Amino acid sequence: MSAPTDTGSPIPSGMKVCSSVPELLMLVEFVFGGLVWILVASSRVPFAPNQGWVMFVSVFCFVITTLLLILYMAGVQKRSSAWNAVDVFYHFIAAVFYLSIAVLEANDTRFLFANFPPQFAKIHKINIAASVFAFLATLVYTIHAILSILRWKSSSS
């Protein structure tokens, strides 16, 4: 009997995760997502449902990105090629979600600036920072999704 061929995912495992460009972006996603989470939690927004959605998305993406990074380091993706689809799907959804919260946060920041007195300047600056990092996180998740799609296409051909 011959040994089974490796039909696993081209996603690297172990410490090689830290040398692959798409997976290196996960560390940037982790940092930017954490910053959005912290900044939104420390700020004040005029619409509670918007803040709830922003917090949900930032915490959800932070946790899932951390979980995926740990799973990739453990080598779980080597057992199945379906992890390529998981990677692409997650990063695409995360990019869309982050785009929605970046726009909401920017709109709330604009509303806060226009309708509140000058003593809210510190809160306004925190909201500006949260908006900027949300847009940066959107960009990083989008780049990761594109690179994951390219890796998936190259591994299937």
In short, what is this structure?
This protein has 157 residues and is mainly alpha-helical. The protein is 76% helix and 0% strand.
Overall description:
The chain has 157 residues and is mainly alpha-helical. It contains four helices and no strands. α1 (21-42) packs antiparallel against α2 (48-74), α2 (48-74) runs antiparallel to α3 and α3 (82-115) packs antiparallel against α4.
Query: What is the β-strand count?
Result: 0
User: Rg to the nearest angstrom?
Assistant: 19 Å
Unreliable stretches covering 5 or more consecutive residues: 1-6
Outline: elongated
Helix content: over 70%
Number of helices, where a helix is a run of at least 4 consecutive DSSP H or I residues: 4
Average predicted confidence as pLDDT: 83
Q: Note the run of SSEs as H and E.
A: HHHH
Structural class: mainly alpha
Question: Which percent band covers the strand fraction?
Answer: under 5%
Terminal Cα span = 27 Å
Q: Report the major sheet.
A: none
List the helices and strands and how they pair.
Elements: H1 21-42, H2 48-74, H3 82-115, H4 121-156
Task: Describe this protein with a few key phrases.
157 residues; elongated; single chain; mainly alpha
